Amino acid sequence: MIELVSPGALLVPRAAGDRLPGGAQNDQGIGVVSFLTAVGSGSVIFLIQFLLFLFLRNYLARIFKSKLYLAPPHERPERQRYGFVTTVKWLWNVRDEDTIKRCGLDAYFFLRYLQTLLAIFFPIAVVVIPVLVPLNYIGGRGSQLNSDGGGNSTGGRPDRTTGLDTLAWGNVRPTSTHRYWAHLSLSVVAVAWVCFIFFHELKRYVEVRQSYLTSADHRAKPSARTILVNSIPASLCSREKLRDLFFLFPGGVKNVWVNRDLSSLAEKIDRRDAIHRKLEQAETLLIKATQRAWRKAGKPVLRPDGVLEVATS
């Protein structure tokens, strides 16, 4: 149905789910019930997936424990069927050196990244929430924490807040703006804490990386003792001159490989292969012609004196 609002203007009906720009502001004041419902449904899904993982990880070991089959023998962990409590205890007591040795630096630093996130946000939550939530809620614009009207149900008073908005800093009254000093102070503390964690983790990263690169196991790998040098002048493109140039490296130079431009050699190889194919075709044609001539002439017979005699039909 189309309703004319004014000459030359049309009013197009909207679906119930369509929103105008800024329509999300109508969702202010979502209550605790909606929040707990969302958290509860997410927790149930997480619990189901976690239980499935605990059940399948021992039966689908090639998927969840591929390290037991794909890794080199000296890097494979022990074959055990850990229970939940045993797994948690083992993960809690595992050493960083064992993780680096069996999984490498990439996997270790990913776990370290997750640990860093926990170290950043958990202390901030422990300090900020008990201080700012009561400061925002007590004596604020609104106190209807359990209101769940699906919108800003303030009875036509835009200066009132409801639902979880009563815990935010927007609930502070204009007459209590001095409370914002607590927000500012905790913001400075949070930023300082994050900078401290970053500094500590970067320092730890340098230490672990340097320790790993200088370890005996890593130094024994060919990849740790091989360097690639580009843009070498033509006057130095020889093994003897390169050995003399890099003799100052600790331990000296063991092997030198000079990679040259072999594009012209590839063209000659293609020509050689083409000639080989033509030669094989000619040999095949010759064999076929000889076979046909032999069948046409007759089957040879070996005489007692050792002479082949062709018996013609």
Automatic annotation (TrEMBL):
Organism of origin: Fusarium duplospermum
Which sequence ranges are marked TM in the entry? Answer: 33-56, 110-133, 180-199
Q: Name one GO cellular component term.
A: plasma membrane
Instruction: Identify the domain of life.
Output: Eukaryota
Q: What is this protein called?
A: CSC1/OSCA1-like N-terminal transmembrane domain-containing protein
Keywords of this protein's UniProt record, alphabetized? Membrane, Transmembrane, Transmembrane helix
Q: Which InterPro entries match?
A: Csc1-like, CSC1/OSCA1-like_cyt, CSC1/OSCA1-like_N
Domain CSC1/OSCA1-like N-terminal transmembrane spans what residues?
A: 34-201
Q: Where is the CSC1/OSCA1-like cytosolic domain?
A: 224-292
Q: Which GO terms describe its molecular function?
A: calcium-activated cation channel activity
Biological classification of the source: Eukaryota, Fungi, Dikarya, Ascomycota, Pezizomycotina
